[in-house]
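tokens incoming
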């Protein structure tokens, strides 16, 4: 399948891996693919169209940097006897004030990812990220396009149904509008 990827789409996949690493992830998730597309396509019609709608690399990173456990989560934990603030204080007291910042992953010493991953720095794709790539291929085939572009990756993300990607996109643009914009860009390129 990767032989059909354009240089921009390949760059997006490599950028997704870099984004996953930067976020201390051990696997590439669909949201990393979204970030990769935005990084790789910043100066493309797709990138400009996304930016006009507020869907930028910086905006997505900010969306993902939001505190993972908010007040609703704290309230839910309190209902079962867990004080989130006390847990945070204890973790910071025992591990330092930066304990929640996510330490960088040391592939030379961590054995969870196997020999190949430690030697190459390769991060595997989650099933949902693989599904995104497969759906991008299906979008290209359905359109009778000869190659898979970053635009097709966005269509795959929209069809994939990943809740994190859906929430991030919906903060900036309706998925229906984004799909229409991407299809329009692909139509103009054809």
């Amino acid at each position: 399948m990767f032989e059909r990827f354009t240089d921009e789409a390949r760059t997006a996949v490599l950028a997704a891996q870099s984004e996953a690493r930067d976020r201390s992830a051990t696997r590439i998730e669909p949201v990393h693919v979204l970030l990769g597309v935005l990084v790789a396509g910043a100066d493309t019609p797709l990138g400009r169209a996304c930016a006009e709608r507020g869907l930028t690399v910086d905006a997505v990173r900010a969306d993902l940097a939001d505190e993972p456990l908010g007040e609703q989560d704290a309230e839910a934990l309190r209902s079962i006897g867990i004080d989130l603030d006390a847990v945070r204080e204890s973790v910071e007291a025992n591990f330092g004030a930066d304990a929640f910042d996510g330490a960088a992953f040391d592939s030379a010493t961590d054995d969870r990812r196997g020999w190949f991953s430690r030697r190459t720095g390769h991060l595997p794709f989650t099933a949902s990220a693989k599904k995104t790539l497969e759906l991008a291929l299906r979008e290209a085939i359905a359109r009778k396009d000869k190659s898979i572009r970053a635009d097709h990756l966005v269509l795959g993300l929209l069809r994939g149904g990943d809740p994190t990607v859906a929430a991030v996109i919906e903060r900036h643009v309706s998925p229906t509008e984004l799909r229409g914009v991407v299809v329009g860009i692909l139509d103009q390129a054809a």
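note: The radius of gyration is 19 Å.
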